Amino acid sequence: NRRATGLIPGDGIGREVIPAGRRILEALPSSLGLKFEFTDLDAGFETFQKTGAALPERTVDVLKNECDGALFGAVSSPTKAVKGYSSPIVALRKKLDLYANVRPVKTVASAANPIDMVIVRENTEDLYVKEERTLEDPARGGVYAEAIKRISARASLRIATIAGEIALRRQKLREAGAASIHTSPLVTITHKSNVLSQTDGLFRTCAKEALAAPRFAGVAVEEQIVDSMVYKLFRQPGSYDVIVAPNLYGDILSDGAAALVGSLGLVPSANVGEGFAIGEPCHGSAPDIEGKGIANPIATLRSTALMLEFLGEEKAAAKIYAAVDANLEEAKLLSPDLGGKATTEEVVSDILKKL
Ligand code: NAI
Ligand code: MG
To answer: What residue stretches are annotated with the Isopropylmalate dehydrogenase-like domain (predicted)?
Structure first.
């Protein structure tokens, strides 16, 4: 089974952690019958400074036509708007129709307050359609700005459907022996339809409809208004399994949830479309530690496993998760963000050994 994988390190520590993803794919036992072919691809702020394009056409073409999946490191964004520059990962999500952003947030099983949840964020619309404008009207006291929040039935139905599928797959993994704090699948629909009855109201109705499909009969469904969701997420994070949300709330919830596990260096994500997934660590380019060789590679290794899950290679994914968990449980070789002294290289080789 040959898998063509694009590697897009991007900027900063992206270049230090993406090689770890490649190495763990190459180290998977041959009994799994997987063969990876890698293509190095450019994107990011440095690429923009060199070539004038943050996302070169070749990168998009190769991903579209030659790859089954990809790993994306991180890109730096200038703090002030730079003419002609816009985020390549946002563009890539659009061009490849990667409509779901999937972010698992998990502690090791032996944690005092174990957490094991996945946030599934709609990734194509809502306020992030970026239809904003600045106007002026004396009746409003002068300058004002406004933005469109667009929610469609199609996007809401498909994001809830993939959330239901993820809940079912997690249940299957549990039944196959994966350690977990949950015993049955639960999807929590998050919205603010009490205030935004049309936009969030549509999201809510569609999500409920999608999850009412017969194949999700075994999945419990609940809903939670987004502000109380934040409260409960911090008070009792262990009670959530799969959370599904429109783009903006999902963005905020997933960064908030990442804070529950201590370091951004641990949290993976995947951008998922039909038959294509990009694994991407949640962290940025971390200029404060760039070049020091101490970036935590675990977010990338877990993102690599997550990519494999969405490509249907669940066994391979499970092996990577287990090797990472073994490193964290043993806690001998940890990077500085986790209070350890190990370098990126030392953490990677320990995890490869455990694999
Ligand atoms: P950041 O995630 O790069 O760093 C935040 C803090 O977490 C820093 O102290 C950093 O050292 C630490 N950290 C992050 N990843 C780590 C890892 N793997 N191991 C150990 N420590 C880690 O966020 P920040 O500083 O706000 O942004 C830096 C740059 O990255 C900016 O240009 C920003 O626009 C960009 N960024 C890009 C993202 C992406 O490509 N998806 C996401 C977030 C930020
Ligand atoms: Mg974010």
So the answer is: 4-351
